[in-house]
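Sample pair:
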Amino acid sequence: MSWRGIATVLLLIAALLTGWVRWLQRDKEQGQSHAQRRPDYVLSDFELVALDKKGQESFTLSAPRLERDPDAKTMTIATPLFVIPPTPGSQDKPWEVRARTGWVSPEGKELRLRGQVTANNTNRSGKAVSMETEELNVFPDEKRATSNAPITVRQPGFTLNGRGLDADLKANNIALKSDIKGRYERTPR
């Protein structure tokens, strides 16, 4: 074999090795570019009013930071405060719902709240109602909330603990699913 034949074989082997190494690296590069994907927009220290299909206020959101994922069209929120208004024409007060983190579905039909979730309202008789849990899913258009986590519901003179929740926010009706324990407390007159 001549020196040209040897050089050709060596160049062919080098080209194959380079192609193979490059092919192995492409998966790592794609993973890095996906992990480094930036949100298409970021809001800082903001207040946002979301409207339903009828043009009525669905909820108001204020938070220090919101990021929108350009691919999934979802939003993640740091320490959100959601104010969910009562049904138009009712005498009810709005619900105020706070959490450590929040996630909003692409159409804004579902809010997933996680970490130290609290929801506060005043019922029709003027008594404060509060809920505490680690996770709460809110459906603002339906004025409904659900959870499968342990939850505590408090009203003056009464504390209710349980696991799981179905809440009708229109009717201010809260139903715990299981492991329910109630405690009455004497209230000052």
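The first strand starts at residue 41 and ends at 51.
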